[in-house]
Design a protein that fits this description.
Layout: H1 2-26, H2 28-58, H3 70-106, E1 110-114, E2 120-123, H4 126-130, H5 135-138, H6 143-146, H7 150-158, E3 165-168, E4 176-184, E5 188-195, H8 197-233, H9 239-270, E6 279-281, H10 283-298, E7 303-308, E8 313-316, H11 318-335, E9 341-349, E10 352-359, H12 381-387, H13 393-403, E11 407-412, E12 418-424, E13 429-430
Parallel strand pairs: 7-9
Antiparallel strand pairs: 1-2, 1-5, 3-4, 4-5, 6-8, 8-13, 9-10, 10-12, 11-12
């Protein structure tokens, strides 16, 4: 502060000294005239500098800062430094705001800033997809007028920041949202809407899976348990009846074993640690082995034929491919009435490999086809149990084919039979000339496939 006072005090002392000299030499009138002139000059200069300062402050970005000496020069210099700091701070805030807006726009969750009166101050693009809100159109609107669902209004009234509201999107009923209010700023609130459709679907699948497994195991366990109690309580059962009970218990035990085997297979296929190990698989030899298994499972009840229109092999995992194709074949045998025909075919089509299983069974209605590869999904649950299926066969097929970059194509109509085709991509195909006998994996005998 002392640096500010020395200059004006020095000027004042000089003026007083001159006035005293004039008073001593020319009288008091000359001294007063000199002081009056100095006062008028100071006032005019002050008004001029104030005008320049006012004009600069009104348009700091368009008008150059005033250039002056003395005390006013110091004032202008300090104000100019303050202006530069404000510009730098404003630039930093602008950059921070721009980065925030860019980040908020990139966030997949819907974000809506509400003021004290619950008017929309800002929202990101995801709000349009989830909540139907548009920042340009709805800025300043009361959110209660735009989203009038009773459950949402109750959620706003509660203002409980620890609670979440799970609901359907007001503009797309297929999307499930999780809404949460977060305190924001001095008196604002941030409404966050997150898409949890996949999480809800996975949770529903988990619940259905547990319910289905429990249901599938309960029936054979009940049957086996009932027969064990009967055998324990009745000592003198005829040998033929006892044998019948043992056979039924064995059938249900095998059914539970097949279910557990399929569950373990699905778990192994879905494991991230289970990497795909490629080898050369001779589809012609595999098809012959699957035909023999189909004949064994059919026991002469069906006419089974094999068409090999290609000698190409596949690059993939033998065990998984055999499991997938074996499920297609065993399903055809299980669901084709006695006297029907089943055809296994291997051919190439536009560079892709197609292994097709065609039957003359009852066929499947179109509305069921998209869901056939879901776990435990059955068109006719009672008939599936009669045939001994676990409901996991096509789910295993889907996982195996997906791991090999292949796909499952299903063509069926009620009363016209079905065709299940595993279509392998061209990069999995190996012409017969490139697969030497040493590379081809042999096909050991295996138990009948579980469907």
């Amino acid at each position: 502060m002392m640096g500010f006072w020395w200059r004006p005090l020095g000027v004042l002392a000089s003026i007083l000294l001159v006035a005293l000299i004039l008073w001593a030499g020319s009288g008091w009138i000359a001294a007063l005239g000199f002081l009056a002139g100095i006062q008028a000059f100071v006032m005019v200069r002050r008004l001029w500098q104030e005008f320049r300062l006012s004009r600069w402050l009104e348009n700091p970005d368009e008008v150059d800062p005033p250039d002056a000496t003395g005390t006013w020069g110091d004032i202008f210099y300090r104000l100019q430094k303050l202006q530069r700091r404000q510009r730098a701070s404003r630039s930093e805030l602008s950059n921070a705001l721009e980065q925030f807006e860019h980040a908020a726009q990139a966030v997949p969750d819907a974000m809506v800033i509400l003021n004290r009166s619950e008017q929309i101050e800002w929202c990101n693009p995801a709000s349009r997809n989830f909540l139907g809100l548009d920042c340009d159109r709805d800025r300043g609107q009361f959110i209660r007028y735009l989203m009038r669902q009773a459950y949402f209004l109750d959620f706003l009234d509660a203002a409980d920041y620890s609670q979440r509201l799970v609901c359907k999107s007001p503009i797309n009923r297929e999307i499930t949202l999780s809404l949460q209010l977060v305190p924001f700023g001095a008196s604002q609130k941030l409404l966050v809407a997150r898409d949890i459709t996949d999480l809800e679907r996975v949770d529903a699948m988990r619940r259905d899976f547990i319910a289905n497994v429990s249901h599938e195991l309960r029936t054979p366990l009940t049957v086996v348990g009932g027969f064990v109690e009967t055998l324990a309580d009745v000592r003198d059962l005829p040998a033929s009846e006892t044998r019948h009970y043992y056979d039924l218990m064995l059938d249900h035990t095998r059914r539970m074993q097949r279910l557990l085997d399929d569950l373990l297979t699905l778990s192994r296929l879905e494991s991230d640690d289970h990497s795909l190990k490629d080898e050369t698989v001779s589809v012609a030899e595999l098809a012959q082995a699957l035909k023999s298994e189909a004949e064994s499972l059919s026991r002469g009840r069906h006419r089974i034929s094999l068409r090999l229109d290609s000698a190409a092999s596949l690059k993939g995992n033998l065990q998984e491919i055999r499991s997938a194709l074996g499920n297609l074949v065993s399903n055809a045998v299980r669901y084709t009435p006695d006297g029907g025909e089943i055809t296994l075919a291997w051919r190439e089509r536009e560079g892709e490999g197609v292994f097709a299983v065609t039957d003359t069974g009852e066929g499947i209605a179109a509305e069921h086809i998209p869901r056939l590869t879901e776990r435990f999904y059955r068109v006719d649950r009672s008939r599936s149990r009669e045939t001994g299926g676990t409901g996991l066969g096509l789910a295993i097929v889907k996982h195996v084919l997906t791991r090999h970059g292949a796909r499952l194509d299903i063509e069926s109509a009620p009363g016209k039979g079905s065709t299940f085709a595993a279509i392998f991509p061209a990069q999995r195909m190996q012409p017969a000339a490139t697969a030497s006998a040493a590379e081809v994996v042999p096909f050991p005998a295996r138990e009948q496939a579980a469907g």
